[in-house]
Write a structure and sequence with these properties.
By secondary structure, the chain is α+β, with helices and mostly antiparallel strands. Helix content is 18%, strand content 37%.
């Protein structure tokens, strides 16, 4: 796939900058078929496409899959599975973009720790390739709001947007054991992304906003690399954090 990008380097990059390149779950030549399957559902005349765009820092971003009907004409389509070959699986870089009251608040870039099941699942929920997706989900709580330590913001209930759901999208995983195993040589510091223990809430995650304590980080699977101020500013601005939601998400390619 890297060679593919090199061959079409200038023409393809120009089309990406124009917003005219999408990733598709289907083979591109079959995109015009009347049915598209995502997860366990089949919809007539609906395609699930993911935008491919550069951000303001020049990172090539694969955005989440979203319903599109019909497929836009005069655009280029690349198979989603091929783009996955451009992901640095040892150090995935994902993003979530927050919105509220009809405006964009900003984007958080999250570097996922290597070899964690939770990190793999987080990336899947940022792209929506298994069906469920973080896009459109609410920020549902601020835990320990205002405390000098332990303040964190809770996300990821794609089922109920309340904190009561968000089941795993990976099967046959002992999630409690995964939490125990996820201990790293780092402390609870601002920006750590950690997981929920029960399987029925295994897609949920929390981001710490302040340096916490000099103890081992248990259950952490990533850290905010940039954009944490977007979250702290939202806490300060919105008395009800549930006004905020993830309006976009995805992963970076070629990082």
């Amino acid at each position: 796939m890297a060679e593919y990008f090199q061959k079409l380097r200038q023409p393809l990059l120009q089309e990406i900058r124009k917003g005219r390149v999408f990733a598709t779950l289907e083979e591109p030549e079959r995109l015009v078929s009347s049915k598209q399957t995502l997860g366990n559902s089949t919809s007539e005349n609906v395609q699930f496409l993911a935008k491919l765009k550069f951000d303001e820092c020049g990172r090539l971003c694969l955005h989440h899959l979203a319903e599109t009907r019909p497929p836009p004409p005069h655009h280029h389509f690349i198979q989603f599975s091929e783009l996955m070959q451009l992901v640095n699986t040892s150090s995935r870089l994902a993003f979530i973009e927050l919105g509220a009251r009809g405006r964009t608040l900003g984007r958080l870039w999250i570097r996922l720790f290597p070899n964690t099941i939770k990190g793999q699942q987080f990336a899947l929920l940022c792209t929506g390739e298994r069906g469920p997706c973080y896009a459109g989900t609410k920020v549902f709580a601020v835990a320990n709001k205002g405390h000098n330590m332990e303040e964190s913001v809770c996300f990821g209930d794609y089922e109920w947007n309340s904190g009561s759901g968000g089941k795993a999208v990976l099967d046959d995983i002992d999630w409690e054991q995964e939490v125990v195993k996820a201990i790293y040589d780092r402390t609870w510091e601002a920006g750590i992304v950690s997981c929920s223990e029960p399987e029925h809430r295994a897609a949920q995650f929390a981001i710490t906003t302040r340096d916490w304590c000099e103890t081992e980080c248990i259950g952490g699977f990533g850290k905010v690399e940039s954009g944490l101020s977007v979250l702290t500013d939202a806490i300060a601005e919105f008395a009800d954090i549930r006004e905020c939601f993830i309006q976009d998400c995805g992963i970076a390619l070629l990082t």
